[in-house]
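Morning, I've got a small favour to ask if you have a moment. I owe you a coffee for this, so here goes:

…
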Amino acid sequence: VGNIFVVSLSVADLVVAVYPYPLILSAIFHNGWTLGNIHCQVSGFLMGLSVIGSIFNITVIAINRYCYICHSLRYDKLFNLKNTCCYLCLTWIFTVVAIVPNFFVGSLKYDPRIYSCTFAQTVSTSYTITVVVVHFLVPLSIVSFCYLRIWILVIQVKHRVRQDSRQKLRAADVRNFLTMFVVFVLFAVCWGPLNFIGLAVSINPSEVAPKIPEWLFVLSYFMAYFNSCLNAVIYGLLNQNFRKEYKRILLTLWTPRLLFVDVSKGVTEGLKSKPSPVVTNNNQAEIHL
């Protein structure tokens, strides 16, 4: 069930490609925004939905991995299918709630420096500080705590510090944890500069904002949104299952007839195979690294 959050994260990454990015391309070609205020507001809303949805999903993934590795005996109860779906719904509800105040503050505006409608950092000092704290610093702290606890446990198990403990780790669990840890680190690196610029500007907008070089703001902005396409690359580099599926998809696109062969083969094997016994996370927790 933990994979549900990975799918949710990929949906958040894809949101910007569906609507905002084509409008940004249009603004670049026309050297300005020509689509009206409604499209500007919708584009800014979806951009925020993608950004905040990404960081909130990364936070929930970190909590999920923390519970799975550090509290494996209670994981099945905490993250059964019903609870996981509830957590997922709450994640997206909080995401929408976090974006809605932008419409009341009037902070979604067109920025000619980046050819897009986005959050304007100079509209309100208190609101900008709140955005940086709630949307970046707090999730960053939660994720850092979760991954720090996981690292401590991994080191203890590796060096057999906790031989009396029932918690044992599989190599696959550690690899999956490392993949999501890299996703988190790259998110922090990509989004850190833009958030710190926003925090600096919010302290004294009239004096600090003019001193921020345009190239630095543009670089930090596109560096932040470049993060949306990095996750798929990370999965491909660090996860064998993703690499195998990427290869299969590419081969299928190159030779479409392979798709029908794979489908028919999968149906045949499914009819011949017997159902395997259920393996719970509690059983897996007893396996040595």
Remarks:
- The beta strands are 108-111, 116-119.
- The two ends are 22 Å apart (CA to CA).
